């Protein structure tokens, strides 16, 4: 499995010049702790990070990031993109196996899960994506709705269409599935963006558009880092 972590948003470098990724969390630097806590961390074949090109991020990539994730690829972009879905795209050309499962992890929510993504995808050829969710009604989150049989029907950004809030980790069958889903979002930007930005969660609508299913996997012990000071 390959994990892409888009860290090129305006909140990564804080007003005081410190980096969000280095903020202490449970005795460890935030980014290292969050990604290391994922149940599937030991099955990751490659990490790919996307950073805004700044002196602070260059130093971070050469120092802590290289120490925490040896061999990880880092892509620097010169300007802010129109959302995390497009920032993640910057790392895709660096992949060596486009058929392996692809995880886009925003790394801003800590949670407990026993999910085995690779095994789940291998066991269901029609499964195109997996969304990790938790109960909420806070409009700060993305949401995924299901029908009365529990089948995914719709994803929406910052709109409470169900009780299934996204935990900020998005699993796609492979890179082609992600790319087709992104194309769907670009072609339907009027309904698939929020404040003119392309978020990752609505891409599951593009997975559904491919005739593939999306599974919702519940998580517990949610600690939302981005909501903390």
Structure report:
This protein has helices spanning 30-37, 55-68, 84-89, 117-122, 175-187, 189-192, 203-209; strands at residues 2-7, 24-25, 28-29, 46-52, 73-77, 102-105, 109-112, 127-135, 142-146, 152-157, 164-172, 213-218, 220-224. By secondary structure, the chain is α/β, with parallel strands linked by helices. The strands form four sheets. It has a seven-stranded mixed beta sheet with strand order 5-4-1-6-11-8-12. A hairpin with a 2-residue loop joins strand 2 and strand 3. Helix 5 crosses helix 7. The radius of gyration is 17 Å and the shape is globular.
Topology:
Layout: E1 2-7, E2 24-25, E3 28-29, H1 30-37, E4 46-52, H2 55-68, E5 73-77, H3 84-89, E6 102-105, E7 109-112, H4 117-122, E8 127-135, E9 142-146, E10 152-157, E11 164-172, H5 175-187, H6 189-192, H7 203-209, E12 213-218, E13 220-224
Parallel strand pairs: 1-4, 1-6, 4-5, 8-12
Antiparallel strand pairs: 2-3, 6-11, 7-13, 8-11, 9-10
């Amino acid at each position: 499995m390959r994990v892409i972590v888009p860290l090129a948003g305006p909140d990564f470098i804080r007003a005081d010049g410190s980096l969000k990724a280095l903020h202490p969390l449970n005795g460890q630097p935030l980014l290292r702790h969050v990604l290391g806590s994922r149940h599937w961390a030991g099955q990751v074949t490659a990490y790919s990070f996307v950073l805004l090109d700044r002196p602070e991020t260059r130093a971070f990539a050469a120092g802590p990031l290289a120490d925490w994730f040896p061999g990880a690829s880092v892509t620097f972009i010169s300007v802010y993109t129109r959302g995390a879905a497009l920032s993640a795209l910057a790392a895709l050309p660096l992949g060596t196996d486009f058929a392996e499962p692809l995880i886009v992890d925003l790394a801003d929510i800590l949670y407990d899960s026993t999910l085995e993504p690779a095994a789940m995808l291998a066991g269901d050829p029609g499964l195109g994506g997996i969304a990790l969710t938790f109960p909420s009604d806070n409009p700060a989150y993305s949401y995924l709705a299901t029908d009365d049989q529990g089948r995914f029907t719709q994803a929406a950004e910052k709109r409470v269409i169900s009780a299934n809030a996204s935990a900020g980790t998005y699993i796609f069958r492979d890179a082609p599935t992600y790319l087709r889903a992104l194309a769907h979002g670009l072609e339907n930007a009027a309904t698939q963006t929020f404040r003119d930005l392309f978020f990752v969660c609505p891409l599951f609508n593009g997975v559904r558009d491919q005739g593939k299913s999306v599974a919702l996997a519940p998580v517990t012990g949610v600690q939302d880092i981005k909501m903390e000071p």
